[in-house]
Specification:
Largest sheet: 8 strands, mixed
Order of helices and strands: EHEHEEHEEEEEEEEEEEEEEEEEEEE
Structural class: alpha/beta
Radius of gyration: 17 Å
Strand content: 25-35%
Distance between the termini: 50 Å
Helix content: 10-25%
């Protein structure tokens, strides 16, 4: 039996999430994709151009019996929308793993997790609620990644790293082993992190330093 699912967000990230769902369905039909909701009606043309169905604003989900995936790049917005949709009684989608992503042993994926094509998760890893790994991102052994974390394309998270809720890891960033990235921190694109990052801090550069 297929699960009815809606993508929340029609920007680039939302349409990429739709790609992931459709790829999953090519291997084993698991989801009945009802369409995409978004509060910006100007995105409708992009949804329909790729063959999707635009369902209207987020409010249109109130009272519906569907699962949702948050196709939003901003972790703080994902948190807000998750709280809203949960208050309406909706359930987050099961983890969505692109067929060309890879998972090792003893990996725990919370509801709403999305792994894009080429994402790599090795062994003894925990990924929190509505955390997203974009294309070619890698999370190595014994990492604990919090809720609403955004791991951008080509990020490398080495072993035994803890990443707090709401962290943004910019494209191509590298986090060496045995570090902690505090809640709400931002790591700039291409940065190499070699020491712990305090909560709410933005770090950039090689080696990464606070901005």
């Amino acid at each position: 039996m297929t699960i009815p699912i809606v993508v929340v967000g029609a920007g680039g990230h939302g349409r990429e999430c739709l790609d992931v769902i459709e790829a999953v369905n090519t291997v084993a039909r698991s989801y009945d994709v009802l369409g995409i909701v978004a509060d910006d009606p100007s995105t409708q043309v992009l949804v329909e151009r790729r063959g999707g169905r635009f369902l209207g604003p987020t409010e249109s989900l109130r009272g519906r019996d569907v699962r949702y995936v948050l196709g939003i790049g901003d972790g703080a917005v994902r948190r807000r929308l998750d709280d809203l949709l949960t208050s309406w009684g909706l359930l987050a989608a099961p983890p969505l793993v692109h067929p060309r992503a890879s998972l090792g042993s003893d990996v725990e994926l919370a509801p709403g997790v999305v792994l894009a094509a080429g994402a790599r998760v090795t062994t003894n890893v925990r990924l929190g609620r509505h955390t997203q790994l974009n294309i070619e991102a890698t999370v190595s052994h014994d990492c604990h990644i919090g809720d609403y974390v955004t791991i951008s394309p080509a990020v490398t998270v080495c072993g035994t790293v803890t990443v707090g809720d709401g962290v943004l890891l910019g494209a191509g960033a590298t986090i060496i082993q045995n570090l902690s990235i505090g809640e709400g921190a931002t790591v700039g694109a291409g940065a190499t992190v070699i020491r712990d990052v305090d909560p709410g801090t933005t770090v950039v550069g090689v080696p990464a330093t606070a901005r």
